[in-house]
Amino acid sequence: MNIRRILMSALIFASSGWLGPLAHAAVVSMNAGRVADVVVTTREVVIHHLIEVALSPKPTPALLKEVISLEHPRARDFVRETTTVLLENAIFLEAESVGAAPLEKDKIQAAQALVQKKMRRNSAWLKLEVGPEELKRILTRSLRAKDFIKFKVDSAAIPISDHEAEEYFNNNRLKFENLPFANFRENIRAYLTKQQVDKRLKEWFELLQSKYRIRNHLGG
Question: What share of the chain is helix, strand, coil (3-state, %, to 5)?
Fold first, then answer.
């Protein structure tokens, strides 16, 4: 299951003006959005992107592209990355509010060590001057949000019966030509399960958007 794909599929569009610059060392950072009372800056969006690159076993071309830059916060990819960070914050807050199982300390420490190792010579990362406590905070939020999504996916998946699968097969015979239902049973069940999970997650994301008043100040 691709957690990042799930997050990116829940794009939340909001329009607003700049709320003023924030300074951090030599890096100029701006307010990118808000989740409840939590302000997310453009600097944090860049940090999040670089962490995703560091933790990905095989980064996708989209992750590796140097498009997430503080110099271009209005770029489409930056706005999309901001949406991901905002949604992760909301999911983290929801996990905290319902008392979801906390992360194991070893998992956070291992992730922190991996990011520090992979980014120790990355010029974009070094310019951000990310301290150990800041890295730990962002990693904890991101990893716990991903764990909570996994839990929601597992709980949203209700087994599809053979009857339901066969009904879909009969209603879409043209897709399957003249081949028997048995050839497609498991694929159909997997497809219908995914549809079901995607629908429930979309509804959940919409609920979180309203509950935590998610606002992307960079626009849509």
Answer: 60, 10, 30
